[in-house]
Write a structure and sequence with these properties.
With 453 residues, the protein is mainly alpha-helical. It has two domains: 374 residues, Up-down Bundle (Growth Hormone, Chain: A), CATH 1.20.1250; 53 residues, no CATH class. Helices cover 77% and strands 0% of the residues. It contains 17 helices and no strands. Helix 2 packs across helix 3. It is globular, with a radius of gyration of 20 Å.
Length: 453
């Protein structure tokens, strides 16, 4: 890579790292947060999902913004917004304030992820692009999984509030480096932003998620649950209808006529749904049922982080040479089998024999999957659609995680005890294996399809 391309890659990794880290660092702090600010499983779910709702819905608008206003400008706004909302989260006096601040933090995070990946796609081409995507995927995945490790140390040694200011230094460094980069793609000021689509997306995602989380408190027959559920489903249907008619849609449905893009996003939904649920249940179970301190609970997934760091870039390069199909089929299945191995866990947790073998296999499967998955999806569309394409894929991943966390109340009832842990692991395994099978049947190799402008 050229010096400019290396700078682009570093900036993209740092910006996305902050957003992904904050999305997962909170998991290990949930017991401490609910203890100080009060609330049970529902409050814990909302602290996670308030961030993911706005991130998942508005990441589509942010993708369009990065194409209209430029990747660099959108990223700069997102960096400042993310820093400010992180400070509000750290100072939140009540659970309600924290949840609201997390929602605004998700808006800022939505500006970071698609613009960073689109910056890579626009500035780096050819085989180096596959390697760059592999490096980006490795570090963002590491952030997503390493969050509980860093958060656990802060919770045990200092305060859960400080987990929200971990990203201050990376954000400052990113802003400095960003000032030295020229946008590789000229913005199009004549394009329109689909604000109506954004509102419908928020309602379409937020309504069903509210129903999934709060059904344990009110019951499915309660109007408090039925009205948001039905309204949300109607809004989501209107969102899809509007996307088929809007002149400048935030999610062009024509993208899904590309086979690898459609199949890859379906696989993304299944794999990242499992990843979001797995990260939540593991650290909460080890603390609330296993009696582990937050630091040790966060370190339980450390092997996954190490494996991703070492292998993701390699598998990204291999997918660039041999195509993504084999990797996308094999990786999720191995990760799913890893979750099945963890079913041997008991209330008196024996980490080395009950959890570690499954965690190692899970890490290997994930490292085989993530970079080829991203390459298959974004490699199937044109360079000019990189912003919206990456936004759609990231939105699918984030929505998958928030739906999975929201559905935990149905899977584990109101408590993550041993039975709930086992049920959650089985659901994660099923999602991962299904993602591998769908990839094996649907992904074409090599990718030749593109979407016309």
């Amino acid at each position: 890579m050229t010096r400019q391309q290396r700078q682009v890659l570093i900036v993209a990794i740092l910006a996305s790292f902050a957003a992904f880290l904050d999305g997962s660092v909170v998991n290990v702090a949930l017991p401490a947060i609910s203890s100080e600010l009060h609330g049970g499983l529902a409050t814990q779910q909302w602290v996670v999902d308030a961030y993911l709702i706005t991130l998942g819905a508005l990441i589509l608008v942010a993708g369009s913004l990065s194409d209209v206003l430029g990747r660099v400008l959108v990223m700069r706004i997102g960096l400042w917004g993310f820093g400010l909302t992180s400070l509000i989260c750290a100072l939140a006096p009540t659970a309600e304030v924290l949840i609201l601040a997390r929602g605004f933090q998700g808006i800022a995070g939505a500006l970071l992820v698609p613009s960073s990946l689109a910056l890579i796609m626009s500035a780096i081409r050819g085989r180096e692009q596959s390697k760059a995507i592999g490096a980006w995927t490795a570090w963002t995945s590491v952030a997503f999984i390493a969050g509980p490790i860093v958060g656990g140390a802060f919770v045990d040694l200092l305060s859960w509030r400080l987990i929200f200011v971990i990203n201050v230094l990376p954000l400052a460094i990113t802003l400095l480096l960003l000032s030295r980069i020229e946008d590789p793609v000229k913005p199009d000021p004549n394009a329109r932003i689909d604000f109506l689509g954004a509102l419908l997306a928020i309602a379409g995602i937020g309504g069903p998620v509210f129903a999934l989380i709060e059904q344990g408190n009110y019951g499915w027959s309660s109007p408090v649950i039925l009205i948001p559920l039905v309204a949300g489903l109607v809004a989501f249907g209107l969102f899809l209808w509007w996307q088929s008619r809007a002149k400048e849609p935030m999610m062009p449905l024509s993208l899904f006529r590309v086979r690898n893009f459609a199949v890859g996003n379906l696989a993304t939904f299944l794999v990242y749904g499992a990843l979001g649920m797995s990260g939540f249940i593991l650290v909460v179970f080890l603390q609330q049922t296993g009696g582990w301190p937050a630091t040790l609970a966060g370190m339980a997934a450390l092997p996954v982080t190490i494996i991703l760091t070492l292998l993701s870039s390699t598998f990204g390069g291999l997918a660039g040479r041999f195509g993504p199909r084999l990797f996308m089929a094999l990786g999720p299945v191995l990760a799913g089998i890893g979750h099945l191995l963890m079913l041997s866990v008991t209330k008196d947790v024996q980490y080395w024999w009950q959890l570690l073998p499954g965690i190692l296999l899970f890490g290997l499967g994930l490292s085989i999957t993530v970079a080829p998955l991203t390459s298959a999806i974004l490699g199937s569309i044109s360079e000019k659609q990189a912003g919206i394409g990456s936004a759609v894929n990231n939105a699918v991943a984030r929505v998958a995680g928030l739906v999975a966390v929201a559905a935990l109340g149905i899977i584990v009832a109101s408590k993550l005890d041993l039975a709930g842990m086992h049920q959650g692991l089985m659901v994660c395994a099923a999602l991962l294996i299904a993602g591998g099978l769908i990839s094996a049947l649907g992904i074409k190799n090599p990718v030749h399809e593109t979407v016309a402008n």
